[in-house]
Amino acid sequence: MAYTPCDSSQIGMNAQKNCLFPAYAGLQTLAIMCRWEDVNRIIYYHEHDSSEETSESGYSGGGEQETVTMQNKNRIKRILLKGWVNEKEETEEEEEENNQGDQLPSEPTHKSEADGGEDDEGDGTYAKWIAIEAGGATPYADTAEEYDADSGTFTKTLTFTAPRAGAEFSSEFIEPLLRNKNGWVVILQRKDKKGGDSAFPILGLDNGLIASEASLNYTDGENGGCYSFTLTETYAPNAEMDLWWGNYHDTQNEFNSYLKYTIDDHDSADED
Questions:
Q1: Which of 98, 160, 182, 259 would give a disulfide with 134, using CB separation of 3.0 to 4.6 Å?
Q2: Are 120 and 126 in contact (CB under 8 A)?
Q3: What is the reported pTM?
C-alpha cells in the first residue's frame, strides 16, 4: 500500500450556514456519563454507505480507535461498555439488509441478559451509564472546547453544578467523580432538536474528562448551595464528536437506550 501521511488539514466542505439546521446555543439538563476505562467498543457512523467500523479495546481503558475516514471519525454510532454486546449478532446478509433503511439494530444489552454470561470479572456485573441532571441557573454553563496550536490538539472543558447536596450524595457521587484519575466520558444533549448531527455532543472519549476544579459555596443562591465542578480533557486529537444515527429521532433512541441501564440508586459511581 502506498505511503499515506497522517494529515487532517485537507478541508472537505465549505464553511457555510446550514439553512435546514442552523446552530444555536444551549444544553438540556439531562446528560449521561461513564468511566473512560469502561469504554470497550466504539462503532462509527459512515455517512455514505451506512456501514459500521468498530474498534476493540486494546489496552486498559478506552476503546482503541482505528483509523477512519475524515467524514466519519467524529460521528459515533454506538458506545459499548465492558460487559455489553449487541443483542443480536447479524450475518453479513442481515447486516446489509438492515443498513438499507432507517431501521435500528437491536439495542445493546449486557452479557447476562443476552446469553446468561458474566462479565470479564466473573461476578455477573457490567459497566453502567450514570445519569446527570445538572443544577444551577444554566445547565453546563461555560462548557467549551479550545484548540491548542502548539500541540495541534483540543482541550475540552465540562462544567456543571450538582442537583443536590448532602453526606450520602457526597460519598456516592462527588468523591468518586473527583478521585477517578482515568476520567469520564459524557454525552450531552443540545436544546436544538432540528436533526443536525451536533445534537448529542460527546466529551472525554479520546482521553477522558478529569476533575480539575470543585467548589462548594453554602450561601450561593444561584447554585442552590451545591457543589460546582470543572472536568477537563487535554490533548484530545479530535474536535467536536457527536453521537449520530443519521437523523435526530434514531439518535435520540440510541441515547435513551443507554438511559435504560444507568446505575441504580445507592450504587457507587466508583465500582472498583
A1: 160
A2: no
A3: 0.78
